[in-house]
Amino acid sequence: MKNKLLIVNANYYKDISSGLLENTKKLIPIRYKVKIINVPGIFEIPVTISKNIKKFDAFIALGCVIKGETPHFEFISQASTYAIMRLSVASKKPVGNGIITCLNMKQAKARKQKGAEAAKAVLSILSQK
Q: What is the pLDDT, as a whole number, of residue 112?
């Protein structure tokens, strides 16, 4: 039986999210059944995972937050990270956090490998079963 993996991709910054997604997909072996759901921003990732928690064995959250001139960056980043961790622990299912938090677009473009790192972590946990 194939493990079912859901990738939730926040595509607010489409050029960044597409790079995260491509780097993530490259690492997932073909023996996994993968579904991708695109959402507008990272704040929508936890609820999307929650709605699908019983349908999949593991999850990868992808997206990017870039700091602006208001505290919005801190609130969204912290709330999303906490919600993702809470979902993982409560469901006892791995949720890889491939959400990058950056001060500017240059940093974001340099961190497109973060999705691959999240995929490696999830695959490692799935292989322990």
A: 87
CA dihedral 15, 99, 87, 51 (to 10 degrees): -10
The single residue listed with the structure tokens 């919005």 is 72
Amino acid 129: pLDDT:
58
Half-sphere exposure (Cβ direction) of 102: Cα atoms closer than 13 Å: 18
Residue 89 sits in a domain whose CATH number is 3.40.50.960
Domain that holds residue 9: 4-126
Is residue 72 part of the annotated active site? The answer reads yes
**12 burial via Cβ count (<10 Å: 0-12, 13-18, 19+):** middle
Indicate the burial class of 99 (C-beta count within 10 angstroms; 0-12, 13-18, 19 or more): buried
Q: How many domains does the chain have?
A: 1
Point out the catalytic residue in the list 14, 26, 35, 72. 72
pLDDT digits (tens, 9 = 90+) for 20-39: 999 999 999 989 999 999 99
* The model's pTM: 0.94
